Amino acid sequence: MIGRRHQVALALTAVLAAVAACQHQDRAGSGAGQPAPGAGKGFTLVAAGGVQPYASAADRAGFDASGGGHDFRPMLAGARPAVSGADLALCHLEPVQGADGDPAVTALPPLAQGLAATGYDSCSTASPQADGAAITRTLNALDQAGVRHAGTSRTDTEARTVTLLRAGTAKVAHLSYAYDTTGQSGAVDPADAGRIAAAARAARKAGADVVVLSVNWGSAGQDTPDAGQITLAKQLTAAKSGGRPDIDLVLGDHTQVPQPYEKVNGTWVVFGLGDQIADGGAGAGEWRGNESTLARFTFAPPVKPGARWEVRRAEFLPQVYDLDAGRAIDVNRAVTAGADLAATRDRVRNTVLSRGAAKAGLTMGQ
Asked: Which of 174, 339, 145 is nearest to 250 (CA)?
């Protein structure tokens, strides 16, 4: 039986889904992910934080499947308009550990299918906790669902292969590194500024017009970047080749809660996206572990040969994972529909803008 709180939450998400269906346009149309007329052949990138198949999320996906198995599409439906409306959409899925039969392991393939149905093109997978079996099962599930990945590898050849994605007329390299890889065997890419810059330059040589870095760093549950994050961000954004930055965008994961966005050395850094699918364990709502953002960056092509693709619009969309209903919710749309989430929206906004991002041009998207 579903309790009254579940019924209320599900009623709200049903309203939001109806609104989203009316507003949604796919990538082939003239939706939000497309550049404005006369803006040139640019592209829009959307990025989300962690999407782990926690036991509570697996239970909800099992309920949503009705006839058996798991269905994560309803869980992610609230994010689908923004995600599928972009030219390129990224998320973060750490390799899923456990024994065969564990809820998260069983739910992994359906989660990958749900990510693909929502519109995600690639997932960063670098994690300090990843082991060989978890890496193999996670990458296999993503491959079977048609979702690309970066950050972990099953073979040496795969480790040397650049993840190149198409976004409009641009080729985008997706890199993924983990800050703390103590005790790992090398299947996970450690976050070292020099090594990452070298990988970015290699991606350029492989044909990348834009290099996007997902980095697993920071302290879980902390809404301010720590000294290690700030130092690495400065090093990464300062790396240049021929006067052109090696990295065009930095997306932070692992913090589990939203952290500030900041333009560092002329390059946008998202210190922490937060988790799009959160752990429903005790206290998660209290420490903001169910709040996150979708980052949306619209890139314009170079104004002259050899120049970088510039971010001409930087936005964030507040998100919250409803722990009762098991739904990722677009906070702005929910507030418009009458949900009591204004305090959540304001809290996320204040955190995101706390390092001066508004002055650099960041706005809250709709």
From this structure: 174
